């Protein structure tokens, strides 16, 4: 089949971003369905607490894949043999399965007791949602395994395939919510995700075995001292980030009915551009950077790093500025229906408005991490991660106690701002020739231009007394046209201009 084949870097970058956008669009449909049928109440708080906790754990485990296992397996393919690389990854697949299985069994024996300790929900609410607790354990096991298998496919340049496969479980979840929401409640969404991941598992195994001709042998001699040290160093940093993310939902889970759900709605909407564009851009570019560094092509590595970050800043900055200005209208249009009340809209709008501001900062942070992973300077990336996460953990304890749910947003914003400037120190020391300061200057220039465009559009549109939804649509269209006109005449980003003219990305 066309989708199950290896792709070039450029084609894989564009096609995987598009397919990823499609897959994530289905996720958003699920979010809207949950908001419409269930709103923001205690059951949805439990559901989102479980889903977010699983995703934090999966991200924590998957960070080993991106920072150590995949780069090492690619090095083995380049400098050793394909069979060595397969044996190396097989060992960790077995280790993942055993560890996650044991954790799942342990929690399944004492679900109420353990979730009472690791959340702020009352036992009554947890008992009422016992099916969600059990279902989340099975989902956790499946997501860890499927994430690892998808990473393997990506390392072989099958960029699009995991995106298409991941859309399957999201479609199933949406269908089951619509059909069975009255009968099973929020468990219908969980059942859909579980069925989707079971199907994903079989598809991934089938194509890995058929296309990659995978051999399921295991080799122990590759667990050398360097790999063990890299895993430990990587997980120290990931542990700090995980702790901050988990503490956030832990503290907010005891902050009143609907707060955690509203955070989830707002956070997921604000993270859409990151999920649609940044993450996939970083994953595909990261694979290419791994290849270039393994081959010693530092000039190409620098070119990919600089151009990728600038393209993302050009795309994400206007999205952040526009959404910040029209957050109220956007939130009302998307959520003000069904079981979603005015209070929930207000809280969701607050989170969308301020969390959207970190979009460009996330892009810079992501590519810094990818660059240092490609260069096998995991310790440096980890130090930065530990410092930022530690500051955020301290801030969230202080700020949530003093100003409530708003403290989470301030901790996130300050953490990413601090990260962008701390990256400068590391880049100056280890990659001075990459001229990181030019990226910061470019970001400031793009930000100022977008603020001017946004101000002009806002003032012009506010003259007319029209429907708020129509106002946002006209403003978005006008903003987009004006931005591309400015780019055409002043060449803010020549890669974007070249792509519009020639439909090619010169990276």
Main sheet properties: none
| Poorly predicted regions | 1-7
Spatial extent as radius of gyration: 23 Å
Beta-strand segment tally: 0
| Percent helix range | over 70%
Average pLDDT taken over every residue: 82
Q: Which class best fits the helix and strand makeup?
A: mainly alpha
Distance between the termini: 27 Å
Strand content: under 5%
SSE pattern:
HHHHHHHHHHHHHHHHHHHH
What overall form do the CA principal axes indicate? globular
Enumerate how many helices there are, as a single number: 20
Search tags:
507 residues; single chain
Question: How would you portray this structure in words?
Answer:
This protein is mainly alpha-helical and 507 residues long. 84% of the residues lie in helices and 0% in strands. The protein has helices at residues 9-38, 42-79, 82-109, 111-117, 123-128, 130-155, 161-184, 187-211, 225-252, 259-270, 272-294, 298-325, 327-335, 342-355, 359-374, 378-403, 406-430, 436-462, 468-490, 494-502. Helix 2 (42-79) runs parallel beside helix 11. The longest helix is centred in the N-terminal third of the chain and has 38 residues, at 42-79. Residues 1-7 have low confidence and may be disordered.
Task: List the SSEs and their pairings.
Layout (H helix, E strand, L loop, with lengths): L8 H30 L3 H38 L2 H28 L1 H7 L5 H6 L1 H26 L5 H24 L2 H25 L13 H28 L6 H12 L1 H23 L3 H28 L1 H9 L6 H14 L3 H16 L3 H26 L2 H25 L5 H27 L5 H23 L3 H9 L5
Helix pairs in contact: 1-7, 1-11, 2-3, 2-6, 2-9, 2-10, 2-11, 3-6, 6-8, 7-8, 9-16, 10-14, 11-12, 11-15, 12-15, 12-18, 13-14, 15-17, 16-17, 18-19
